[in-house]
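Hi again,

Forgot to attach this to my earlier email, sorry! This is the prediction with zinc ion bound. I've pasted everything inline since the attachment limit keeps bouncing my files.
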Amino acid sequence: MSNCILCHSSSGLMLFKATSYRESSSGFPEQHYYKCSDCGAVYIAPTIDKSIISNRYRDANNYLGETFSNAVVEAYNGIQRIKHATQNQSYNLPMLSSAIYHRELRSIKPGKVLDVGCGDGHLLIELERSGWDIYGTEYNEVSLAALNKQYPGKFRNPESDFSDWYDTFDVIMLNQVIEHIEQPSELIKILLPLLARNGVMIIVTPNLDSWARHIFGRHWVQFWPPEHVVLYGAKQLKALLARNNMSVIRVQTYAEPGTDYGLSFRTALNLPNKTVSKSEKLLWYPVSLLGTFMLSGSQLVVIAQRNN
Ligand SMILES: [Zn+2]
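Structure tokens for the complex follow:
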């Protein structure tokens, strides 16, 4: 009942009762977060029935506009850096300055990108402006219909047949998605054949090893029941990818002062108003930024490629 979602070990230690600051998550049976003694992941148990969860994604609006535009810009730059580095047979990315990247960027042609769990598609539309050919999967039917009207055939339900998308995508993005997945290996197995040769997967997920998590502990907002079923650090994400024939090219973290610091702080103090003001964001910005420089930013960005 409390096996690790990631490595299936049964030696998990219960950390705390999973409580959310959100009204909308009340009414579920009591769940707990466990820490896996074998792989270090933190996971929820018992998980909520899959059909209830997918209905939440289908109906609710709270996942449509989920935006971490910093991550997207960062990820986008990351893609370009990797493409450039791949062309130059060099993976020594951190050695190159960002000024060089930007100069080299202009000569690289954007390709096809798939955003898994694309919500209202705004991240993709942002990328389209830079020349990317955009595709997505999404549970929400209203959003799916709207996107398909504008981009016929390019947006699908996650349970669709994808065989005509094999060997297609230069980039597959999972932005704030993998922490929702109860069988992450199964998802990777579905997505892997869709990558084009030299294609990359960019995974952005809350960082279990972040300062925000350590500062706020159980009040860290990313302990977000019932949806966030597993939380990863870089080590756990690397292990998941390695088990699925993928290698990590690059790991970085970035700052999200508003949610991960501001909202966690409000949750820890049990403040009734959960809206983080601009000045609060500003207040949290220095520590958030410093955490990022120390590779302990509140969001983890991992870029991976298929082996062979
Ligand atoms: Zn485990």
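The pocket of zinc ion is lined by residues 4, 6-7, 9, 36, 38-39, 41 (CB under 6 Å). Residues 64-108 have pLDDT under 50 and may be disordered.

That should be everything now.

G.
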